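## tool: complex_structure
## caller: assistant
## args:
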Amino acid sequence: MTLPIPLIQALQVATIAIGAPLVSGVISRVEARLQGRRGPRILQPYYDLAKLVRKEALAPEGASWVFLAAPLVACAAYLTVPLLIPVLTTYGLPLGYMGDILGGGFILSLASFVVAVAALETGSPYAQMGASRAKTFAAITEPVVLFVVFTVALLTGTDLPYVLAATVRSSAGQLVRPAHLLAAAALFMVILYETGRIPVETHTGTNEFGMIEEARPFEHSGPYFALLKWGSWMKQLILYTILVNVFVAPWGLAATARPADVGLAIVTLLAKAAGIGIVVAVIDNSFAKLRLFKITEFVAGAFLLAVLGVFTLYLGGG
Amino acid sequence: MHTLAAADPAPSVFAGGSNVIALIVLLLEFGMLRQAMRRDQIRLYAVQSAAISVLAIIVAAARNLPDLYALAFCSAAIKVVVVPVVVRRLLPRPGQQGAGDEIAGSGALSVASTVLVAIVVAAFGFFAIGTLPIRSPILPITALAIAFAVVLVAFVLMILRRDVVSQAIGFFSLENGVSLAALVVAATMPLIFEVVFLFDLLVAVVVFGLLIRVHHGRAESLSTSELTSLRG
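## result:
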């Protein structure tokens, strides 16, 4: 028995949407344990979402429809990206070739852009500060992402995520290639920035002056806030999926359409994402937050890795 | 459905792995550009030297060159143990006047700009080696390009950092870059030469150590910007 392909495609989106709060719950649990606290339940993010959905939605005076539309657009964008990346299968699904890595990157930036516009709509200083900082630093992480894409393109001859995953699986020599390791490390640093983790930003807490990503949905409430929160968790899981299923460990994906294989792939993906989450939690607990103006140094480090990746490949022939 | 195939065959695991170790050497060199504590600067150098010894052992095992085991041992003993200990001893002790000043912010440019300059210089290194028709039976040529980049970035370190510790460590790590290049193009060189080079390094360490002491004794600081006042 095999599952119909469109169903697998839908399952990719559902895995990301439903699994994202779980991964976030695992991370905050591990983080609390490392700090010697008991920590919240692993399922707490789901309860948070349920609570927020039941609450009343308020908008600041003077905010237009953009403010209310932004969470919906952002969520729609986050639900589109899982169609493009290998979430569950090694073989490309019909909509998987709709866009390449850059296409996925554009959709993720669209989501971040509409959230920033909504933050500007509010007139709240914290939300506006967060939005302006997020856009400023996004501009300097952009070259890093581009160089990672260049590395992928030089390694595979295309920039389709499915092809890179297949290339990495093809031999152990591909996995230990310096360019591949450097690109993966640079991508990991960008992910730390994009998901608002230490050393860039404290994920939880109320240190408003250090806030970047976390400050943007300050004025949203009720179901809209729930959508934004859920969206940021989905973004986190999408980025982790790209890191593990395309770069670091593209194993455990379903090679067939049999329900057992696909089910196993879902479990493996969530386990691998939780593994990345644990690494992130350990980093969270072992480093201090960088001062705002030191973030450029952090990004310069990521840029260095990505550029050296291109050098070793294109000029060095490695 | 599209075919999923790699564009070009990957190099062997040995080639990839040794390139990765060479790259670690280069990344540690970049780390020295921004290191703020002099003790950690020396530690970075020790780790870098250890990486080169590890590479020598791997090459010795994979290419059946038993001489390299002896070289790896000598270079580890001198560069991982002796040189860091001697440099640390020669630095002014804590409690002495001027000993507390760390080397943070001694760069002539900001850290991000220094890294960008070093990237450009490293690119030149990669490009220059890429145009040469050199092939080595021992290690992939990428490792030679990386070794050349290490040498050039060590120059950037010595030119842009204005403190004696970074400049001395920059000079020693330049020697590390040369050792790496020697592993690629001259791994079969007689052992006696390699050992002579290592003892040469010891002489340099003593000379630099004396310079550091004299400079610190006169200027009561590790910064070389004081030397500007000596101009006529």
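## assistant note: The CA atoms of residues 125 and 148 of chain B lie 6 Å apart. Chain B touches chain A at residues 1-2, 4-13, 15-17, 19-20, 22-23, 26-27, 30, 34, 111-112, 115-116, 119, 122-123, 126-127, 129-130, 140-142, 145-146, 149 (CB under 8 Å). Handing back to user.
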